[in-house]
Amino acid sequence: MPASEETSSGPVIHDHRRIDPVTGQVRGKHAASKPAGTTGAGRPAPPAEAPEAASGPGEDKSADHEERETGETPESPEEATEMVTGQAVKGGKQAADLVVQLAERTADVQRLQAEYANYRKRVDRDRIAVREQAVVGTLSGLLPVLDAIDQARGHGERSGGFKSVADSLHAALGRLGLVTYGEKGDPFDPKIHEALTHSYSADVTEDTCVEILQPGYKVGERILRPARVAVAAPATGPDGSSNEPDWDIAEEGN
User: Fold this and answer.
1) Which DSSP category does 31 fall into?
2) Residue 33 DSSP one-character state
3) Is the pLDDT of residue 199 over 50?
4) Distance between CA atoms of residues 16 and 18, nearest Å
């Protein structure tokens, strides 16, 4: 009886496993559909080799096949060390670049912050200057009104309702920063005083404001109008001599 008829006389078992359990190799497309125990069409499979003999070559062939599929070769320890070292060097360079970029961005942010702080200070300073200029312009226009009120007070005419209005006006101008200065007996200061008359007096030891003709006004350190005063100088000098001029009687007669 032919071999094909002997194999077909009993039940046929098809082995669809992708890996041959005997050789450890990957079966072909048609080999996976062949009956178990056969290697060809109608031919019985050769006897299996001893496990010791089959394990070595099968593992080598499987490793070779896996190497062919992946396209990579095993790396030696030296190559692996070089690869790790290269990756570390590359990573260190990238980290250094990131540190430099971070420092540059930080410097940019700090510069922008400083510029913004200076801008705010400049805007605040300009805002204060504009406000002071507006207040100074308004108060300077009201100085003649204040002089008229002071003249009325000197003549005893500031009373009744007029006194209430005058007091309210002075209080409102004071809240805007207007300050009145100039008192009798103050040392004469040409920076804040304007001398309208000059005389000599034995009662003073330095140039002194003996009379306030018109008070002075200022806002902060800014003088709106100097105080107009009468100044008296000492009658004697440091050595006791008179500071008053000697007039000739003949000249007085002429």
Assistant:
1) G
2) G
3) yes
4) 6
Instruction: Note the pTM of the prediction, 2 decimals.
Output: 0.49
CA angle 147, 152, 221 (to 5 degrees): 25
* Beta-strand relationship, 208-214 and 227-234: antiparallel
Using alpha carbons, select from 198, 222, 220 the residue that is nearest to residue 208. 198
The count of other CB atoms within 10 Å of the CB of residue 139 is 19
Note the pLDDT of residue 13. Answer: 75
Would the CA dihedral through 134, 140, 145, 149 be positive or negative? positive
- In terms of residues, how long is the chain? 254
Angle at 64 between CA 63 and CA 66, to 5 degrees: 65
At residue 140, φ and ψ (nearest 5 deg) are: -65, -35
Q: Is 219 left (phi over 0), alpha (psi -120 to 50) or beta?
A: beta
User: Among all chains, which residue has been given the structure tokens 């980290």?
Assistant: 95
The closest of 38, 47, 32 to 6, measured between CA atoms, is: 38
Residues 193, 195, 200, 201, CA torsion sign: negative
HSE (side-chain half, CA atoms, 13 Å) at 128: 6
- Burial label for 226, CB within 10 Å (0-12, 13-18, 19+), is buried
What is d(CA 8, CA 38) in angstroms, rounded to the nearest whole number?
Answer: 12
Query: Residues 209-234: pLDDT tens digits?
Result: 999 999 999 998 889 999 999 999 98
The residues near 164 (Cβ < 8 Å, ≥ 6 apart) are: none
In angstroms, the CA 244 to CA 236 distance is 8
